[in-house]
Structure formats: C-alpha cells, structure tokens
Amino acid sequence: LDAFGLVTLNGTFGFKKANGSFYLSDGTSFSADYLAIGGSVSSAFVGVGSLGLTLNTVDFGVLLVTNGATSYSAITATVGSATFAGIPGLTATVSGASLSINRTTNADGNAVLDFFNTVGNANDNSAAAFSLPGTSLRLTIDGDEGGLLQADATLALDAFGLVTLNGTFGFKKA
Fold this sequence. Notes:
Elements: E1 2-3, E2 7-23, E3 29-48, E4 51-67, E5 70-85, E6 90-104, E7 130-131, E8 138-139, E9 148-159, E10 163-173
Antiparallel strand pairs: 1-2, 2-3, 3-4, 4-5, 5-6, 6-9, 7-8, 9-10
C-alpha cells in the first residue's frame, strides 16, 4: 500500500465476520456475532521524505463481540522494531513492543472475555486461544485479570547527546 507517499506498507490483512462461542472467566459461555481483524506488516513507513517512523515486523489483531447490549473488545499487537528518523542528532528506536487490551461495556468492567485456561480456576477450563485472520497472532489474554491494558517495549533514545536512555519499560492496568 502506498498512500500518497505519506504511508507505505507491505503485509497481509484479513477479517472475518461470524458467530462463535465465547467464555468469561467465571465459566459462563455465550454465542454471539463477532468481527475479527488481523494483519501482519513486514515493513511500513509513515512520514515525509526522510522524516518519519519506520516499522518492521508488526502483527496485530482485534476482536469485537456483541452479545445483546454488552460489547467486548480484545486487542493484541506486537512490533519488532520502530525507528524515528529525520532530525539530525535525534534517534529513537523501540523494539520488542507488545500491547494487550481486554475490555467490556458490562457494568462489571472485569466481566471480560477469557482466552486462557488458568490453573487453579476450575471455572475457566473451556477457555482457549482465539485465532485471528491475517496474522499468526492468537488472543491468549487471561480473563481472570479482568479489564486489562498492558504494554511493554525496549527503548533506545539519544536526544542530541544531551539525553540518552536505554532500557525496558512497561505498564499494566488490570
């Protein structure tokens, strides 16, 4: 894909709209309509000229499920590397990045989808990973953690020789 030279990418995408069975961590199950979107991008560039962001080995998946008045969303993504370039003296590279999100509109924000059979929780023995179209990624988020937002990555930054950072960071809200 080349969008006016501002965005270029090479990869595969897929989507699937169907009905399937889903599990919550309390062991309850339901059948519902869903939309699954996935992709695997080997390389991408977003920017103008030499100023921009280069991405390599990006995989992502999004699952949207509707069960009556309740909606569920689960998102997973990984980025092999992302490099910002184009400003002399400023370099920033992120590698090994990952993102996981598991949310619901249910009044109980922890009543989320479960894709992992947790040892010690006999209620979720039927929970299983969910395959996504267009990518080798699978949703393996443990619903026992409740509503989840989690990300981590390794960062290398050099800001004009004044500030240099190298390390791994992450955050998790569950």
